[in-house]
Amino acid sequence: MYPAQGAVRLDVQAPPQVALNAPFEFTIRATNVSDVMVSEVVVKERLPGNFRLQGSNPPASATDGQLIWALGSLDPKASREMKVMGMATSAECLRHCATVDFVVPTCANIEVVEPKLALTKTAPAEVMLCDPIPVSFVVTNSGTGDIQGVRVLDTLPPGLETADGKNQIAVDAGTLAAGQSKKFAVNLKAARTGTYINRAVATSASGLKAEAETRTIVHQPVLAITKTGPERLFLGRPLTYQITVTNKGDAPAVNTVVEDTLPAGVRQVQASTGGTVSGGKVVWQVGTLAINASRTLSVTYTPATAEPQVNTVTAVAACADAVTASARTSVEGIAAVLLEVVDISDPIEVGGQETYVITATNQGSALDHNVQITCVLEDAQEYVSSDGPTRATVEGRTIRFAPLATLPAKQKATWRVVVKALRAGDIRFSVTMNTQELGRPVEETEATRQY
Hints:
The chain has strands at 8-13, 24-32, 38-46, 51-57, 61-63, 66-74, 79-88, 97-103, 117-122, 126-128, 133-141, 147-155, 160-162, 168-176, 181-190, 194-203, 209-219, 223-228, 232-234, 239-247, 253-261, 267-271, 275-278, 281-289, 294-302, 309-317, 320-332, 337-343, 353-362, 368-376, 381-387, 392-395, 398-401, 404-407, 412-421, 425-434, 442-450. 0% of the residues lie in helices and 62% in strands.
């Protein structure tokens, strides 16, 4: 590109003749005849020796016989006029010579811009522990001019990390033009409940900086469960457990389900309201448990065997850790031996024989041990013989059978004693039974008429 060309023309308007020692004036016109602005325009007028200066308009500076006007700049086609007043001091011709100096400036326009970096960050105010935490960042150039090398850095607080396990978010946003925004999103996850506050920082290659902060509270329902029941129970009786589930967290426990696993072989299962019995389990669809709310349930069944009953219950809810509780009940059988004595031939004649049948029946649910039968005769009778599962020993009018080692539940044992009637009378045949489990003797008598 060639530099612009400027030109300034000087025109002088003066009278063709003037009288000696008579005042007159003449005009100098400076005109910018070009299409570009000229600057530092200086017009100089050399004064003749026979000219006496009386003044100038605009005023000029006079130096060494010259008038000098510093006009500054002239726009394209613009003009400035200068008037000079004076008189001729001799009859010689007045010769006025004017010159002009100027500069054609070479200019460059440099735009001044002011980029402005802004950062906004959004995250939910509250979430559940099991839910992702969506976080978004928006970097914006709200000023003029480009911003280069934009980078967003977010160092996460302890307990918070990205879905792929990182503890820092770093995003290169590149260049932002004036008015441009760029959005970035990421999902975070919390390791525990609590309040998480973290600050993100956006920077640029030119040193611009912006910050944004979010605050998220992470909640979780926390279940607790207890199970209570009797420590000891006799076989054949119903067993009832009380179950209490409580939400001790800081969020409602949604879709709470309680499931009780039954021991094998139980009978007559009954559940409290809402419980469904199926496949060896009782299930309650509890629904939503509010914060600090509790629900009490119960299950009843009859054990089939005399062995410890261990019963476990589990509670689960959305976003809550499963909890369990167990209860143990010792189920014991009980020996309940019934003693019966009957005579076969009552009444009998003197000199005849009577047979007494002695039966021990274990009506209970547990084995009994060392069942011993002892019979005592009145003096109107005389021992003849005996038989049964154990042998008898006779001492005077007392017949003692050896102990029967065991008598299982629902089983019976029978002994027989044959006696002879010695004289008439209303006779009592006495039997005493002792067993290990009963602890105290059982006594039974049978009346017999002898004539």
